[in-house]
Structures are given as C-alpha cells and as structure tokens.
Amino acid sequence: MAALTAAAGLVLSATPAHAIPAFTPGAAGAGDPYFPDMGNGGYDARHYDIALTYRKDRSITARTRITATATQHLSRFNLDFLGPLTVHSVTVDGTAAAFRRTGAQELVITPRRGLVKGRTFTVTVTYSGIPRRIEDDALGVSGWVATDDGAVALNQPFGAATWTPVNDTPADKASYAFALTVPNDLQALANGEFAGRRVHGGQSTWRWRMPQPMASELAMIAIGRYDITAGRTPSRIPNVTAIDRNLLTSPEQARSFHELTEEITEWGADTFGRYPFGATGGIVDAVGVGYALETQGRPVYDRKGRPGINPGSSLVAHEIAHQWFGDSVTPRHWRDIWLNEGFATYAEWLHGEQHGGATAQERFDGLYATPADDELWQVEVADPGRNNLFAPAVYDRGAMTLHMLRREVGEERFFALVRDWYARNRDGNVTTADFVRHVKRYGDPARLEALLRTWIGTTGKPAL
Predict the structure, then answer these.
(1) Which one of 215, 281, 333, 453 has the lowest number of neighbouring Cβ atoms within 10 Å?
(2) CATH tag for 330-456 (out of 1.10.3720.10, 1.10.510.10, 3.90.550.10, 1.10.390.10)
(3) What is the pLDDT of residue 83?
C-alpha cells in the first residue's frame, strides 16, 4: 500500500484520528523582564471569587476560587502564592489535585488529568494564617499591611500573592468577587460595586464585585473602623468613600472628600471618555506606607499621622485619572509604567489649569528648568529599570512628553488622541510601541516618532 500511494503521488497521514495531545507544564513566569518570578503561563485567569474571614488575632482563613481557560494542553500549572500562609487543599473542577510549594512564590498544581487547550476549568484553594507585608528597598511596602484596627491589602507592583493565590501579572486581567467576613465592629471594603452585607452572630460579611477586568496589582481589601459615605455622582455612578475614624475630625471632612471624589470622577469622564467601571470612590486610611494607590474603582490614600487632613484635589485627580490610564488601559509589562504615571500626572496638570491653578505650560517650564545633570534626565522613561519604576522621571518626564505632544499636534487633536487611546484599549493591555503607533495617526509620523524617542526613549535633557 505504501508503494502504491507513493507512486500515485498521494500522501496519507500517519497520525491517528484521535491522537492523545501532548500535555506539558505551564511556565513558572509570565515573561516580564523586571519580575521574572511573577505570573505564570499555560492559562488565562477569567474570574477570582475570594471568600476571606478576618479575626481579631490578625489571622485569616480563606478560599479563593479561580475560573481559568487553558491556553495549552496543560499537565500542571502554577499560581503565585507566598508564605507564611498554609495551603490546606487544592481542587481542580471539584477533584483533589496534587500541590507543592517551590521557588520564590510558586504553588505548583497537578490535576488528576491533563487540561485540554481551550478548556475552562476551576481551581479552588483553601488556606489560612497571618499574611505578611513585603518591604523592598527600591519599591517600598506592598502586600497585606496591618493597621491599628485591621489591615489594608495594597499590591503594586507585587503583593497580591501575600493574601490570595493568583496569576500575578498585569497581562492577565480578570473579574473579581469578594465576600469579606469581619467582626461586627469592623467594616470591610474592596474594589467595585457594593453587593450587600449580612450580619450573622458576632460577624458580618461584606460583598463587593468588580465585573470589569482587573490586574491583580490593583485588587484591594481594607478592613477597619471607617466612616462610610455612599451616594451617586450626577451621571449616576455609585460613589462609596470611607475615612478611618481615627483620622476623622468632623462630618464636613467626610462630606468634602466624598464630593471631591465625585467632582473629579465627573471631570475625568468629560475629559477622557465614559468612566470605565461600575462604581467610584476612595478610602482614606492610616496605613503607614507613604503613598496613595490607584486600586481599581476605589483608590486608597495613606494619611497616617494627618488627622483631619484629606488628600488634596491634585492627588485625587491623579488617582482618579488612573482609572482610565493604568486600570482600564493597563501596561502589559512593568517597563511601560510611564503609560500609567505620565498620564495621571498630566491629568493633575490639566485639572489644575482648568480649576484656577498653574497652567500645564507653567508646570512644564518649572520642570524643564531642572539642571541637565539632575536625575530627572538620567532615566529612560520607557524602560526605567526595576528599581526606577517609581522614579520622579517616570511621572514628570512622562507628563512632559504628553505636553510636548499637545504642543506639536494642537489642542483639538491632542484631546482626541487621548480619548481615542482610552476608547480603543479599554479593559485591555498596551505597550509603549502601541502608543507610538497610535500617536503617529495624529500628525507627521516621522516628527512624532522622533519626539517620543527623544522624550521617553533616551536619557539626557532634550533641547526644545
């Protein structure tokens, strides 16, 4: 038969009709050059359902259920998860799976049978212990941070894995649901829309949901004693704000913060396009980390040691602007963080100039007067390096780059450029190369590419 078919010029496949696929392990990293241990390969996380109980001894017991889709024929896969939390059980589609801890943060899971590419599966992990915070000399504090009356989880750039098993890469966004059980004298907040509270015995369970895709570094939990204000913006966006009671000195303080959040959310929608999420808000707390963070739908502002003093309009404009740039439109790799911080910093300038403050040109001129040997000019903004993720250049030169684009293309085209960047990439991931391609639609492509190369792709003080 072989000779006959060869002579006749026919080719017959030797592969059986129902060949068993070759199952291989998912990668133990997502390929980010700054954080090779973060994230994992072989699957796409679609939804996280987190049920967590917090106790007065600061311990937690929790169950995280992850719905994911296999992106290869998967023999085993990893989640990012840090000690000292103890894993009690792991199941895949309800069946017990083998698991082990290895490396810096790997929870390696081997299901009883391989997962075929394209299959949606559910992995459930139960665990307990006292989560820890992470302290990094260059990047600061992240993770589960204990406070005087509870805890706040802040995950940028890493930290989510201190309190939940996760695919900890901004390239794999998913929806989230939270059921947070705390003693009755505490409140529990998280991202997104409030989904109800149930009191049972001496505890209460607070439910929150974020149906839009969210990067793990933007997930947030806040447990403590808060004064909570709820309402809606003029365009009917639910607005939930909270202030740590130890920082609250008057009812006017809570009302003022709530109204400022509302005003800037509405301003952002008018300036950049429809607000990305189902709820807005903010949390003012005594965390002690020394920064504010654009946690999705509800930023956190650390004001430890500053009772009675709310975050100002410039800071709130920065964090609310991140809801468009950084949260909805999210860099795929950490080196592109200027797409977060440059945009949010320029939003501060725009809001200020439209509300009686310095103009964006005046802010630009003040920075440009910085001497040429200053650190501002020594960082390559589009690839700053791991330890310079939060360097001033990423923020300030990022904003200066956008101002140079505004000067080059003019007011009308610039604001169209910004709005369209958001509209085209909403809920997705982007790179600097994507932004360069986008910008070149709005003027002379060679001039615009050269401008961007000068301001974000090189070091040294650019000539004007």
Answers:
(1) 453
(2) 1.10.390.10
(3) 85
Cβ-in-10-Å burial (0-12, 13-18, 19+) of 291 comes to middle
What does CATH list as the number for 23-224? 2.60.40.1730
SS3 451: helix
Highest CATH level, class, for 229-268+278-311: alpha beta
pLDDT digits (tens, 9 = 90+) for 357-399: 999 999 999 999 999 999 999 999 999 999 999 999 999 999 9
pLDDT score at 16: 52
CA angle 305, 307, 310 (to 5 degrees): 110
CB count in 10 Å sphere of residue 238: 17
Q: What contacts 24+ positions apart, CB below 8 Å, involve 446-452?
A: 447/408, 448/405, 448/408, 448/409, 451/401, 451/404, 451/405, 451/408, 452/401, 452/405
Q: Which of 231, 237, 243 is nearest to 268 (CA)?
A: 237
Residue 15: band (very low, low, confident or very high) from pLDDT cuts 50, 70, 90: very low
pLDDT digits (tens, 9 = 90+) for 247-268: 999 999 999 999 999 999 999 9
Q: Could you state, in order of their start, the residue ranges of all structural domains in the chain?
A: 23-224, 229-268+278-311, 330-456
- The pLDDT confidence band at residue 13, using thresholds 50, 70 and 90, is very low
Burial (Cβ within 10 Å: 0-12, 13-18, ≥19) of residue 47:
middle
How are strands ordered across the β-sheet holding 120-129?
A: 95-96, 86-92, 120-129, 60-70, 43-54, 174-183, 203-214, 193-200
**Mean residue pLDDT across the chain:** 95
